Amino acid sequence: MRMLVLGAGLQGSACAYDLLANTDHEVVIADLAVDSLPAFLHPYIGGRLSVQRVDANDRTGIRDAMEGVSAVMSAFPYYFNLGMAVAAVDSGAHFCDLGGNTEIVLQQKGLHERAREKGLSVIPDCGLAPGMVNILAEHGIRSLDTTRAVRIYVGGLPQNPQPPLNYQIVYSLEGVLDYYTTLSWVLRDGRPLQVAALSEIEELSFAGAGTLEAFHTAGGLSAMAQRYEGQIPSMEYKTLRYPGHARAMETIRDLGLLGLEPVEVKGQKVAPRDLFISVVGPKLRKDYRESPDLVALRVEAEGDKDGVPTLLRWDLLDRFDPQTGITAMMRTTGFSLAITAALQAAGDIEPGVWTPDECMPAAAYIDALAQRNVVIHEHRLSPVG
Question: How far is residue 197's CA from residue 272's CA, in Å, rounded to a whole number?
């Protein structure tokens, strides 16, 4: 089978590597910038890995790249996801993406009948969060007889934080700022509603990472708040950072420095966010071998099992792999995308458009991650309070 990865950045490269290392599929990686692929892909070039230059805005070029492939994985920015899904279905290929924008996911849902009739599956939101965390949350819901609350926490962090923000770029600064400025969906009293990003800060302790703070950001729940309306009283997703980060970013946001509306600066129109990214981005971009990252994750489902109050918890702490040079964020996000596509290509996903929590076999997914040494630990506890 031939598999197409759209996007040759961090996540797309990790996705391609995982397919090459763990399947016998041929892989095509396509992007405008394909001249500087990471070293871990070089041994495969000219063998099972081929490279194709394509512009995400070139509809004809994209459809040509999709010709004859079994599955398409999109690591392009989220705003391309709807168009890429349409093109894949039209081309007769399964499709999955990294998602992150719930409104676009709901639009992709409109392709359900079209995909089903063609025997294809489309799965948006297949990275770490959304993606892995939603599969674990659904696994918890299905393992309980009744569920009262679902809590999701995840963050990509430097192993050695440096002030003033105690943060470094682990995927896309543009994406991070979107999450910090967009309202976040939650369930309260069984009703979906939106709360402000960076709000309702709480502290949690993680073995191996110390004390972290958690706060609301957008996108992590995918469409679960809408799906479980009236069925589960409480559900929320929060991002993890080192203490103090949320208040610092809230100040920056509230001063207008993350705004998208251009302002005049000495006769030039400049969007404050573009200026912020240009100035701050280089300071937060590190060499991962010198400043390795980690991913911390916790998913909790609380309810009753066999008449007993029960708290199910899944924890993950993954770290930069110095042997391959693949970061923890790439391992947990790019590998997740590749595992999803491999299951699609194998025919293990029912045709139609599904979010990962609706269609992914949790046990097979968790086992696949463990084979890649991305180990998720499950705990059954008694709720506190």
Answer: 19
Kindly state the DSSP code that residue 41 receives in the 8-state scheme.
G
Q: Each residue of 312-358: pLDDT tens digit?
A: 999 999 999 999 999 999 999 999 999 999 999 999 999 999 999 99
Cβ pair 79, 56 in contact under 8 A: no
Residue corresponding to tokens 């630990």:
377
Q: List Cβ neighbours of 53 (8 Å cut-off, separation of 6 or more).
A: 30, 31, 32, 34
pLDDT tens by residue, 103-152: 899 999 999 999 999 999 999 999 999 999 999 999 999 999 999 999 99
Give CA–CA dist 40/253, Å, rounded. 37
- Contacts of residue 141, defined as CB under 8 A and 6 or more positions apart, other chains included, come to 147, 150, 228, 232, 301
User: Alpha helices of 123-222 — where are they, by DSSP H?
Assistant: 132-143, 173-181
**Nearest partner of 236 among 215, 250, 209, judged by Cα:** 215
Residue 327 CA, chain-centre distance (Å), reads 14
Contacts of 179 (CB under 8 A, 6+ apart): 100, 197, 217, 218, 219, 239
Q: Which domains does the chain have, with CATH numbers?
A: 2-127+331-369 (3.40.50.720), 132-327+372-381 (3.30.360.10)
CA atoms within 13 A on the CB side of 194: 13
Q: Per the structure block, which two tokens stand in for 212?
A: 């972290």
Distances (CA, A) of 69 to 18, 65, 82, 94, 128: 17, 8, 18, 9, 25
DSSP secondary structure code for residue 44 in this structure: G
Three-state SS at 321 = strand
- Does residue 365 contact residue 138 with C-beta atoms inside 8 Å? no
Residues 6+ apart with CB under 8 A from 68: 2
The neighbour count for residue 195, using CB atoms within 10 Å, is: 16
